[in-house]
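Reopening this one. Same input as before:
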Amino acid sequence: MMRYLTPFLMAICLVALLPADAWGQHGCIGIKGGLNVSTLSVNDPADPDLAFDSQTGLVLGGFIQCGTQGWFGLQGEVVYSQNGAKVRGGGSSIDIDYIRVPVLLVGRLASLDGPVHPILYAGAQVAFETSCNVNQEGGQSMSVGCDSEELDDPLDTNNVEFGLVFGGGVDVQFGGLKGQADARYNLGLSNLNGGPNASQVSVKNRGWSITVGLGKLF
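Same output, byte for byte:
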């Protein structure tokens, strides 16, 4: 677990080492929302043909950004994220919902004099599973918990996930407000499989998030 905490510590240390005039003394707090396009990356030697297609879910939450007037800043978020995937050719899907807490280093790419700033993100996140369901479509549609005994092969998932985040977007400041629009890639590092075969079968989250946000400068 400690190796997954390293990106968090690196992000915090990088910002702490920057001179104060590089990332400014101002901040912003606000809300954001958008869409997830997520899937699962599976490595199962016993079933090499098992594959998943992406599915769409919602992202809703809030953010706080420190350093809105400089070249660099630090942004923390708490968001509710609907993830999962569709079994390719199987008529079923898996829904896994999380509370995600990313910590992101923000770099601005244009002059700070204007109101519009292209930005890049990089950082790490921890996610806490809130629910996991398997949905079966077709003649006998059903939706049950991933660990339900009704399933032929119940899924035992880990409740905590660590991952990396990369992306870019744009900040627009107007008056005492700031708008955000971004697209980011979520790379899960943790094996979601918490069952007895976890050492042989790896399941990891993958996906894009597209969000917009509005915040109050302070």
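So the earlier flakiness isn't reproducible anymore. For the record, The two ends are 36 Å apart (CA to CA).
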